[in-house]
Write a structure and sequence with these properties.
The structure is a homodimer of 414-residue chains.
Chain A: E1 3-9, H1 17-28, E2 34-40, H2 44-48, E3 52-54, H3 60-66, H4 89-100, E4 103-110, H5 112-127, E5 133-138, H6 154-173, E6 181-186, H7 193-197, E7 211-213, H8 221-235, E8 238-243, H9 274-286, E9 290-294, H10 298-301, H11 308-326, E10 332-338, E11 346-352, H12 353-356, H13 377-383, E12 395-396, E13 399-400
Parallel strand pairs in A: 1-2, 1-4, 4-5, 5-10, 6-8, 6-9, 7-8
Antiparallel strand pairs in A: 2-3, 10-11, 12-13
């Protein structure tokens, strides 16, 4: 089917989200069926607002350098499409714009909320009898998409966090006695993939991190204090990693704000604050001077220490999305399957968007130790191959040189 | 004078503190006057506790790799020596140990609090008529030592923060509309050197950071809200950098905890919390969803993105300290002087410890803009040469390979 394609980015950007964009653009350029290559500004909002960018007009060098540029080059959004039964308004607008611009291929780079959007666009096109090939491209540092072994973006965040723990761990170690505890808070929402990955920093028993806490394991304050005390008495200091989304045994977040500003479009409450909360606890109950680290969006955007494997895979899922759409498939998200052997091998596959949207893959409980405060060797074996390899980024005057798109508007043909 | 030398590290480690250690060791190895090369474990405490390490016994490769290792390889401390008039106990112990081990050269790597220690050791040796050559080696990310153009450790922290702002800034930019503000909190205590350095991230008007707040300028909440509002209306989002040590017009810290755990040996209160405080303000007053970043000790320990110039200079001040002591000088801190020309040139000099100890160099007010919310071009010109060049760190399995010392105890000769 000949026509134009549209690509957009959604949700929290990752260090490699632009690699996927680059993969889509460069693959689309190879195929005659695809005429214009449009980018929607700020995800689905760009389609709704008719803010479409002509990606064929961008400089080749800008596209080449996209992959090592943080943020979402097209802009992103956190916008929730209502369901078909709630309101057809957005869908009518989307399909109207698709018709106007003859958009026939729709690529959406995002996480589980964004796969909900992608799925809804696919369903709407079918219902409205508009020929549109819709493919989702996985992206999330949370690593919580189902049907895929892992998600592009996760490994770079994991690598950045692991190096942070290595470095801050050495720092803490040299101050044992005067500053005795450090708490590093990771993102990851309801899953402990990122928190668990900090274990990569550990090379010996004494190395940081000493304790890791997961959203998958009900959090007990008393047990936490007991754990911290035990490590402190054994080695003279303690480096703790906590996932932002810890929950108590009733399933309530240990730290969640409930005011209006802090809830996003998908109804997720803001979780930040767990490290500060636990710091106060460690200081008051154990009298240990404690520092907290909250890298927050730095762990999502740290291209300067990204994983090469992650970069390659992010590009690959973008490229494969285009191929799948051109095979006539629609309503799928690209997935990565891992070979069973000892040496890391991957192959690309796909899963139905309807099965992926809004689902969440947690860390298997058998990959967390019995005491619920560290990962097992299996977790490490899972994540280690994904953080391999460094990425060369062009620098200028001591700092990275990051690309920018010119973002020229595209106009529909009369 | 023939004898043994002792070197120690004190205060918060920096990304390059071990380069200075390396400089001392490798220079000391070249001189016949210096017999044993001892390291004191955990700064002055190692001397008081007679925990001395034989640095000649360390592997050459471990010493070579020290320079790219975070933390303080010998261990550090935050210990305040009482003044001579308050108590002679510590001084008597220190000189006793010096005699016992025939320590004749004393090198202390640290910031302004540590230069107080160094100065006191120098004075005590003189009073007790013990021949000891005492030289301080500057180290602090805060960049607040007087008589030196800048301090080793500062530039690497500045570079790490600048890349963090670049990356997190791109991240925020792609989400303008759904997440509109980010507040990054830097260290720096009473000076805005680190906060100001984040301005290096800015390449165009729209780039982060948009606003920077300094301890040097009395902080007004109302003016802050006005500034944020103005930037937000102009560009749709706002990236704010704040120094941990902001003070109101009465000179009180905007955020300081006063409980016992949070005050260090030198009486400095803990300052963390300003970003969280301002976030609540921005969210409640302006209804802008705001995220906070607090890299904390990661900015002190991030060897993986250190400045090569900083690394070289940290080595140099260590090396020059040994040379100065061998010239017979005592009671000095090594300083770095900058040439007057456009091209960055440095030369090594020295300043009296008694003039350096406990003093604090603030950002000159003429380097902060009139509105008190950004740096001037002069600040940028000052810091830019210091962050140049990347450092190659050995990696293994996708993560840095950091050295460790074996730390064999040294015994005094009978």
């Amino acid at each position: 089917m000949r026509g134009n394609c549209i690509v957009a980015q959604s949700g929290g950007p990752t260090a490699v989200i632009n690699q996927s964009l680059c993969g889509v653009i460069q693959e689309a350029q190879k195929h005659r069926e695809i005429e214009e290559i449009c980018g929607a500004k700020n995800g689905i909002l760009g389609l709704l607002k008719e803010e479409l960018i002509d990606l064929r007009k961008e400089k080749t060098s800008a596209i080449d350098n996209l992959g090592t540029t943080p943020g979402a080059a097209l802009g992103s959004c956190r916008y929730r499409l209502k369901s078909w039964s709630e309101s057809k308004k957005d869908f009518e607008k989307i399909i109207e714009i698709c018709r106007k611009y003859n958009l026939r291929y729709f690529f959406y780079i995002g996480g589980n909320d964004s796969m909900d959007t992608t799925n809804k666009v696919n369903e709407a096109a079918k219902r409205m009898d508009y020929q549109l090939k819709v493919i989702g491209i996985p992206k999330t540092i949370d690593n919580d998409l189902v049907f895929t072994d892992h998600c592009p973006g996760f490994a770079s965040a994991a690598k950045y966090l692991a190096v942070s723990v290595m470095e801050a761990g050495r720092h803490l170690e040299s101050l044992y006695g005067s500053e005795s505890a450090t708490i590093l808070e990771t993102l990851g929402r309801n899953t402990g993939w990122l928190a668990g990955s900090c274990a990569l920093a550990k090379r010996s028993k004494e190395d940081a991190p000493h304790l890791i806490y997961f959203p998958e394991i009900p959090f007990s304050l008393d047990k936490f204090i007991k754990d911290v005390k035990e490590v402190y008495h054994k080695i003279g200091g303690v480096f703790i990693v906590v996932s932002e989304g810890l929950r108590d045994k009733k399933g309530n977040y240990v730290c969640a704000r409930k005011d209006g500003v802090s809830i996003d479009a998908f109804g997720h409450p803001e979780l930040e604050g767990i490290s500060g909360y636990l710091k106060e606890l460690v200081e008051s109950r154990l009298k240990l001077k404690t520092r907290t680290i909250k890298s927050d969006i730095c762990q999502q955007s740290a291209v300067h220490f990204a994983s090469r494997v992650d970069m390659e895979e992010a590009y690959l899922v973008g490229k494969e999305a285009v191929k799948l759409a051109l095979e006539g498939k629609s309503g799928y998200m690209i997935t990565i399957k891992r070979g069973k052997g000892k040496v890391y091998e991957r192959r690309i596959s796909a899963a139905r968007l309807s099965l992926v949207a809004n689902m969440e893959k947690k860390v298997p409980l058998r990959w967390i130790n019995r005491r619920g405060n560290f990962v097992t060797e299996e977790f490490i074996e899972y994540v280690r191959p994904l953080i391999q390899g460094e990425v060369n980024i062009p620098t200028q005057n001591g700092l990275p040189c990051y690309a920018k798109l010119e973002k020229r508007r595209i106009l529909a043909k009369k």
